Amino acid sequence: MDYFFYPKSVAIFGSFREGSIAREILRNIVEGGFEGEIIPVNPKGGIIEVAGRKFEVKRRLTSKVDVSIIVIPAKLVPGLIRELKGLTKGAVVISAGFSEVGNVELERELINAAREAGIRVIGPNCAGIFGVYGKFFGSFEVRVRKGGLALISQSGAFGGAALAMGNEEGVGFSAFVSYGNAADLNESDFLMYFADDPNTKVIALYIEGVKDGRRFFDALRYASSRKPVIILKAGRSTSGARAAASHTGSLAGSYEIYRAVFRQAGAIEVEEMEELFDAAKVFEMYESSGKRVAVITNSGGPGVLATDKLEKLGLEIAKLREDTVARLKEFLPPQCSVRNPIDLIADADYERYRRTIEIVCEDDNVDALLVICVPPIFISSGEIARAVIDAKCKKPIVVNFMAGALVREGVALLEEHGIKNFPTPERAAKAIYWLSLRKGDRVIS
Amino acid sequence: MDYFFYPKSVAIFGSFREGSIAREILRNIVEGGFEGEIIPVNPKGGIIEVAGRKFEVKRRLTSKVDVSIIVIPAKLVPGLIRELKGLTKGAVVISAGFSEVGNVELERELINAAREAGIRVIGPNCAGIFGVYGKFFGSFEVRVRKGGLALISQSGAFGGAALAMGNEEGVGFSAFVSYGNAADLNESDFLMYFADDPNTKVIALYIEGVKDGRRFFDALRYASSRKPVIILKAGRSTSGARAAASHTGSLAGSYEIYRAVFRQAGAIEVEEMEELFDAAKVFEMYESSGKRVAVITNSGGPGVLATDKLEKLGLEIAKLREDTVARLKEFLPPQCSVRNPIDLIADADYERYRRTIEIVCEDDNVDALLVICVPPIFISSGEIARAVIDAKCKKPIVVNFMAGALVREGVALLEEHGIKNFPTPERAAKAIYWLSLRKGDRVIS
Fold first, then answer.
1. What is the DSSP string of B13-62?
2. How distant is the Cα of A164 from the closest Cα of chain B, in angstroms?
3. 3-state DSSP call for residue A37?
4. What's the confidence (pLDDT) of residue A167?
5. Hey, where are the domains in chain A?
6. What is the per-residue pLDDT for B98?
7. Within an 8 Å CB–CB cutoff, is residue A337 touching chain B?
8. Which chain B residue has its CA at the smallest distance from A425's CA?
9. Which residue has the higher pLDDT, B404 or B38?
10. How far apart (Å, rounded) are the C-alpha atoms in residues B239 and A340?
11. Cβ A166 vs Cβ A149: under 8 Å
12. A157–B303: do the CB atoms touch at under 8 Å?
């Protein structure tokens, strides 16, 4: 499926008038820096200018492309697919008006046409795809930062919202696919593909229901054996399942069965959108972690909140070795607490943080570090960020720099070095929890 | 205690050199627009300029003030308090170095001096106070927007971080008090005070432990009978309690006892910082709600996620009356779902949202509305915001406009009209849950 996510050429079929979806997609592709050939197609022809670049609109496609994006009226789609035989490898059908509104026959016709033409289809009724490393933004959704997350979404609107929120939450993306009605390619195909995609470190899947449970289980198990797979399943409650069924037409099925499948396959289930981002963020940074956590903070209260949450999640507050405690006592002011949580107190500076992180990191009773920073009083948050960046430590460090504008400098500096910030002590604690679910839970494929 | 939160005059004792805490507090008071008299005091005297205003530093206080803020070395504080007899009603002692570092005797001396002088004391070892409606920002912490929340924090650092985060989360504040060692006034006094403060709609309390449990219970019950009281108790876990004890010196006690006290007193306990903000936000808008919720959305997926969360929290997905369904069917396009969750689909505009909200609001099977908006495709999010604002409805409406930058216009417009946005469907659902805890749970005082 590389031709979808790393295409060398793309054709876009639709109306290119101002404000149209096809034009928005074209704009996104141009502005996203796509380096391959871009061919807009419409029977009316003409010249258009998009994002400062002029295009001749072809009346029909005559040369071969990797992928075609189709935004034409539903009833014309099967005919176009037949015409594209030999001209395109893949088709992304944005057009709606198929099985989701009861036009099951039209969707069958589309799929038959695609099978005959040897074309693989994403959609119909989808929001498109992004191949971020291929600089290919084949969707009208907001473009995203490059990173490790491949987001697979059954719902286009959910996907779009998640991309925009991911941008704000500091998530980086490798790819996005909204697969809509899944007439041809579905969640299982994408799981298999991204499992082997070298730019994807973590896969997140939003589903309401799947059609082929057996194949899904196999794909999920395979993908989870290669990298973390995060799942947000909508339709867990009775009312939610009923709503999902009416919304996607897919059988939501018993949530208990889904849960068992997720667990057995080694996937990581989250229950909220926010958790999806937090889990994705932490898995962009680290593969897994043990359960014994050391908390390092410059303020007692937030350290206690992190400790409460860690314990509630079944993690352990690491018992530091005697020699670790002794080494900390040697250079820390006497008011600091050297028991875990380690309180470096309000005037903690670069050196205090860096040395503490390094000493604690060497303790073999410690699997991961949770580093908290409330706005320091006499120095910038950037100094503390620098300490986290410079500290020599191979174990997972999850940071909670707290209080928005007051720590913006530190958070930005961390970001530049690939360290993602979690905005509260509890969310940082839960991030370590997600990591701990991967330890020893690997399924051998 | 009005002299603390609505003072007519303030004296500040400390060093006013560049970068000092006393100077930062003075700057905050001036920039915050305090309209009363401001008197900086330091034995060295001199002239200083702060925030564009010149002050003569008095060598000692000779006129009467409502409140004195004290940032001088700990050992000098009792003497100063004695000198202030008859000159100040209240003293906020920022200075640290008392019981929190083992100087119990010095703290006792401070309190004895205050009692003899008839001066009430906040602190020592605290971050100060804000009386937002008195335009009095008597702390070095970041200033906040005017609103309904009085935040009472045992931890100064937690309080400071919470103020800054509250600003980002859209919380509005009536007051803030960091009470530190609570040598004189403590959490119970502030609960009693803010219970009767007309500008305070909701009280939030961060505690690690309390000293006088009986008095605390009475104060909490009284305050909860007047308005919602949100509590975040740190030190719930074994390790957390131990850390809290070493941090504040207060006995954390058994969390089970605290929980029972909170519940019996009618307070609302939250378990995370983020929940504290969300609960505060919703109670700034509404007093309480029943359990039957209608979900209105322009995208199926997020509607399902909200439904799942509502059901998980024990709320009910309202069963709409037959005539409500009929009225909705009359004007909504046939693709819309008129079962709850009500899906207005992607092209929903101002009129579709407004009329739906009004019709659903009139249904007596519905107690509260959860209105979701993913970025609309052909109109601005401001239009949908306007529909929420214009809709005639007296029931609680909790909104989730989703996807950061893409709905910024709508969220800003809602804010202007006092409608606070919740960033995910799940957090909006939980906000209604907080409201539902107040229904019928009122304790009669």
1. EE--STT-HHHHHHHHHHHTT--SEEEEE-TT--EEEETTEEEEPBSS--
2. 5
3. strand
4. 93
5. 1-125, 141-285, 287-436
6. 96
7. yes
8. B273
9. B38
10. 8
11. yes
12. no
pLDDT one-digit tens code per residue, A147-204? 999 999 999 999 999 999 999 999 999 999 999 999 999 999 999 999 999 999 999 9
Q: Which residues of B touch A236 (CB under 8 A)?
A: 308, 312
Yes or no, beta carbons of B299 and A164 under 8 Å apart:
no
Question: In the structure encoding, which two tokens stand for residue B362, read together?
Answer: 């009139």
Tell me yes or no: is domain A141-285 CATH 3.40.50.720.
no
Which residues from B are below 8 Å from A427, CB to CB? 274
Average pLDDT over residues A420-438: 97
| Fold of the domain spanning A287-436 | Rossmann fold (3.40.50)
Contact B154 A301 (CB under 8 A): yes
Q: Quick one: chain A helix, strand, coil %, rounded to 5?
A: 40, 20, 35
Which tens digit of pLDDT belongs to each residue from B158-213? 999 999 999 999 999 999 999 999 999 999 999 999 999 999 999 999 999 998 99
Residue B371: strand pairing partners: B296, B399
Provide the mean pLDDT of chain B: 94
Q: Is the pLDDT of residue A62 over 90?
A: yes
**Count of Cβ atoms closer than 10 Å to residue B339 Cβ:** 15
The CATH H-level (homologous superfamily) assignment of domain B287-437 is: Succinyl-CoA synthetase domains (3.40.50.261)
Residue B152 confidence class, pLDDT cut points 50, 70, 90: very high
- The answer to whether residue B240 neighbours chain A at the CB level (below 8 Å) is yes
Predicted local distance difference test score (pLDDT) of residue A444: 40
- The confidence band for A247, taking pLDDT boundaries of 50, 70 and 90, is low
How many whole angstroms separate alpha carbon B177 and alpha carbon B141? 11
pLDDT tens-digit profile of B298-348? Answer: 999 999 999 999 999 999 999 999 999 999 999 999 989 999 999 999 899
The residue among A31, A61, A228, A49 whose CA lies nearest residue A130 is: A31
Task: Inspect the interface and report whether the beta carbons of A304 and B101 lie closer than 8 Å.
Answer: no
Q: Give yes or no for residue A253 having a pLDDT over 80.
A: no
| B chain contacts of residue A304, beta-carbon cutoff 8 Å | 208, 234-235, 240, 243-244, 247
CATH of the domain spanning A1-125, picked from 3.40.50.10860, 3.40.50.720, 3.40.630.30, 2.30.33.40: 3.40.50.720
Encode A35-58: b = buried (16+ Cβ within 10 Å), e = exposed: ebebbbbbeeeeebebeeeebebb
B-proximal residues of A, 138-157, CB under 8 Å: 140, 142, 153-155, 157
Nearest chain A Cα to B334, which residue? A101
- The reply to whether A287-436 shares the fold of A141-285 is yes
Q: Do B273 and A305 touch (CB under 8 A)?
A: yes
In a mutagenesis test of the A interface, which of B207, B276, B308, B315 is the best target, namely the one with the most A β-carbons within 10 Å?
Answer: B308
pLDDT at B315: 97
Name which of A243, A378, A406 is nearest B341 (Cβ-Cβ): A243
